[in-house]
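Fill-in record for GTPase Era.
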Amino acid sequence: MENGDKQLNNGGQNNTFRSGFVAIVGRPNTGKSTLLNFLAQRKIAIISDKPQTTRNSIRAVLNFENAQVILIDTPGLHKPKDALGAQLNRIVRNTLKDVEAVIFMVDASQVIGTGDLFIANEISTLATPKILVLNKIDKVQPQDLEIQIEVARQLGEFDDMIPASGATGENIDKLSARLLELLPEGPQYYPPDMITDQPERVIVAEFVREKVLELTREEVPYSVAVEVQEMKPRKDGEIVDIFATIFVERESQKGILIGKGGRMLKDIGSGARAEIEQLLGSQVYLDLRVRVKKDWRKEERYVRQFGYTE
């Protein structure tokens, strides 16, 4: 996907061109996707307060004056309970093998605990530069933040620690500048007007799944996968027709998603269509269907079919 908007400059650095891939890692719900969207200056990754919201490694291309940073938003590392969870962890670990730097995000508004320590130990053996970002400081009182900073220092050795907020943008310029200092000299990997290498139909599917996460509760959000079967503009070019299927694991979940008189499915489609139209810059006709694929999260073949690949 391309963007004609000019990104941030690199703070007046010299003419040496720096570039590299940077993984954002952390427990679920630490704000990784929010940070990525803020830096990309556009919504690329979906956001929800539910675990396992991010299921793919999503790349945002940040173009600076003399640098290009490719941010990779990863699923949250966690103890897997099924084939999907195991695959998400593999995606994260494989991403970490081939990056120039790592942003480790910790939620400053929550207890810093064993889950954070698990990830800190996971990345401790990496030779690449690591920045610990204490995120969501907009939700923390100053005196409590000082305590959280001291606790975070116990997580390991980092090239820098930056308290910040991906929601408000506080200290994000400082994070960008530090990243540019740590990245090596390198080529321009993507054209300067590109903001992501994620196919549009993948982002469209994610926008539909985001609305399911927003509007449903209990086990339904975790049992949902979305597949876009067809996406094409009409001959007049003014409307894009999109046909997609929402997969669930139980007939009862299908009933919840469709809702009484089809109301829930209509609300999901309406909310997703608004996001998709902003993404594509054109009107959209969105046709959603719901199908049952029993226990798909336990079957690796279905996990891969729905696009959760390394």
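KEY FINDING: The first strand starts at residue 18 and ends at 26.
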